[in-house]
Every structure is written in structure tokens, then in C-alpha cells.
Amino acid sequence: MSLRITFITAGRILRQLLNDHRTVGLILAVPALIIALISAIMDDAPQVFDKTGLILLAAFPFMLMFMITSITLLRERTGGTLERLMTTPTGKLDLVVGYALAFGTAAAAQTAVAAGVAFLWLGLDTAGPTWAVFLICIVTSLFGMALGLFVSAFATTEFQAIQFMPVFVVPQLFLCGLIWPADQMAGWLQGVSDALPLTYAVKALAEVQAHTEVTSDMWADLAVVLGAVVVATVLGAATLRRRTD
């Protein structure tokens, strides 16, 4: 892997994102506004907001990075950019790590804005350190990025890329514990929930919320999400071919 090529790739993707002002607004402003809206809805139940708002800090980067990555990669595949890059000394690892750096930076900015609004303005409270929340959110966003990279190989239009969200994203949002505690679901749904990486991100956040220090359970749950990132990244890298369809 060439660090120079990797950083060039990351810089190119970041410039594309910055030039699209609607995407910048989607990444930075929308999550914070929605969390503020939910805080107002749950105004009389601050403890419920503490749990829901914390999960949303990870759910938004996961969802948006999936959407943005799948569309960005689809444009590069169908526009011939990816094919041209694959005929140069640029390797698959250079591309994948470059994408991860670019979208990880975008996710970090999004998490910083949303967390700043939630913790400093809306009164979101956790027993554990804020940096642990930030770390979990970034890892979760990388999982969304890796899934988007993989899914982009199976779509021919941006609309088709969005259509994959009900398959790969929505079930994880429903079953991770955001809407209803996983341990109170039907038995077979609990089994499905236990197989979904986003569930472990929520479990890791719950550890941060309940304990003043980071726990071994938090690290174990985060390791599961990291493992999912690696698997999805490998699958996504395998779809990077020298010839586009």
C-alpha cells in the first residue's frame, strides 16, 4: 500500500463531498436537528432521551455513511473513474483505505457536531467518558462505509443503491434496541438481533452510559463491530474490478 496514493484518494473524495453543499448539510446539520427534535418530543422524559439520543449518535453516521458511500462508489463505477484508477499503480487497498479515511473524517465531523449539540445544549448525560462514545460512533460509521462499498457493486443507478437500505440498514435500526429493547423481543427476533453488528454498537454505548469507566464488555462489543468492518471491507474490496460492467 502506498500512503501517498491513499491520501490522494482520501483528499479527492473529501473535495467531492465539500463541493456538494447539500451533502455537507445532510452530514452536519440534519442529525443534530433531528436529535434536537427528539429531545423536544421527550422533554418530560430525560432518561429516555439519554438512551435514545445516545443510540442515534451512532445510528446516524452508520446510516448516512452507508448511503453516501454507496452512491459515491456507484458514480465512480458507472462514470469510469474506478476503471481508470484500477489501470494505474493504485491498488485495491489504497482505494479502500482512502475511502475509509475520507468517510471516517466526514463521520468524525458529523459526530462532533451532533454530540456537541446533544451533550452541551440538550443535556444528554452518560456516566462514562465522552471519548468512548465518539470512538464507538466512528467505528459504527466505518461499518456503514464498508457496507456501502460492498452494496455499490450490485446497483446500476443511485435509486437502486438507496433501495438496498431497507435490506441492510433498516432491519438493524429496528432490531438494535433503538425502538424496543432487544431482550424483550420475540425469541427468534432476539437471535436475529444478536447476529447484527449494530446491536453490539448499541450494547457498547449502553456500557458507556451505565459505567463511569470503560469496561471489558464495551471493548468486546466494539471488537464485534470492528470485525464486521473488516469482513464488509474485504467483501467490498473484492468487488473492485479492473473492468466496470
Automatic annotation (TrEMBL):
Listed transmembrane segments: 21-42, 54-74, 95-124, 130-154, 161-180, 222-240
Classification lineage: Bacteria, Bacillati, Actinomycetota, Actinomycetes, Glycomycetales
One Gene Ontology term, aspect cellular component: ATP-binding cassette (ABC) transporter complex
Chief site of localization: membrane
Family: Belongs to the ABC-2 integral membrane protein family.
Membrane topology: Multi-pass membrane protein
Sequence ranges assigned to domain ABC transmembrane type-2 in this UniProt record: 11-243
One Pfam family of this chain: ABC2_membrane
Protein localization: Cell membrane
Keyword Glycosyltransferase: no
Assigned keywords, A-Z: Antibiotic resistance, Cell membrane, Membrane, Transmembrane, Transmembrane helix, Transport
InterPro entries in the cross-refs: ABC-2_transporter_component (IPR051449), ABC2_TM (IPR013525), ABC2_TM_bact-type (IPR047817), ABC_2_transport (IPR000412)
A molecular-function term among this protein's GO annotations: ABC-type transporter activity
One biological process term in Gene Ontology: response to antibiotic
Protein name: Transport permease protein
